[in-house]
Specification:
214 residues, alpha/beta, TIM Barrel, eight-stranded parallel β-barrel, 9 strands
């Protein structure tokens, strides 16, 4: 059975990193050089978080319209991939070495893609990234089935991620605000557990449906 991969995004402390189960969480995201974000952290804080992460979990630097200097600093910090919202410059595409996850903020339609061997996956998020609001997943039917890996983000929670998986069948799901405490900062281990269980249940149901249809 193919498992939907899970990315927990917006980590802000080593304690959050340490509670992620490596057997089920594929990636952990940290927001840097985004001073407007309440989840923004420094490179020093990111180093402490990365040290606390289980080694098998990939470390993703999440940023918006980074300068080449910022992208270089994130690569040198030891991140496994760079997730770019906003503008992605040709300098970054040509100079860097680590893979890029290209974030696409859905507004009215799915935009055209950049083409680069460094772009390993596309992440589809709500019009306002980090808002915790979902978008109309049906618009992703516009994506040509070219074998691209795509990640679904934007307003996912333990309550709706199962429907999202059955509707869109993403390669990976990305959650941040949907597993945070109510009324205070930080990730809630119980909500993370519930999110993982909901993904696993959706995977089981999809596997059963495929078996019956075949």
């Amino acid at each position: 059975m193919l498992k939907t991969r899970i990315k927990i995004c917006g980590l802000t402390s080593p304690e959050e990193a340490a509670c992620l189960p490596p057997s089920r969480v594929a990636c952990a995201g940290m927001v840097l050089f985004c001073r407007k974000s309440r989840r923004n952290i420094t490179l020093e804080q990111a180093a402490a978080i990365m040290k606390a992460l289980p080694p098998s979990i990939k470390k993703i630097a999440v940023t918006v319209s980074p300068s080449p200097e910022e992208a270089r600093a994130l690569e040198e910090a030891g991140f496994d991939a760079l997730q770019v919202h906003g503008t992605l410059s040709e300098d970054i595409l040509s100079e860097g070495k680590i893979p890029i996850i290209r974030a696409v903020n859905i507004k009215d339609k799915v935009p055209l893609f950049e083409e680069s061997p460094r772009i390993k996956a596309y992440l589809f998020d709500a019009a306002s990234p980090g808002s915790g609001k979902a978008f109309d997943w049906s618009c992703l039917s516009q994506i040509p089935p070219a074998g691209r890996k795509f990640i679904l983000a934007g307003g996912l929670t333990p309550a709706n991620v199962g429907k999202a998986i059955q509707t869109v069948h993403p390669w990976m799901v990305d959650v941040s605000s949907g597993v945070e405490y109510d009324g205070r900062k930080g990730k809630d281990p119980l909500k993370i557990k519930a999110f993982i269980e909901a993904v696993e249940e959706a995977d089981r149901e999809s596997s059963t449906e495929q078996h019956i249809s075949s």
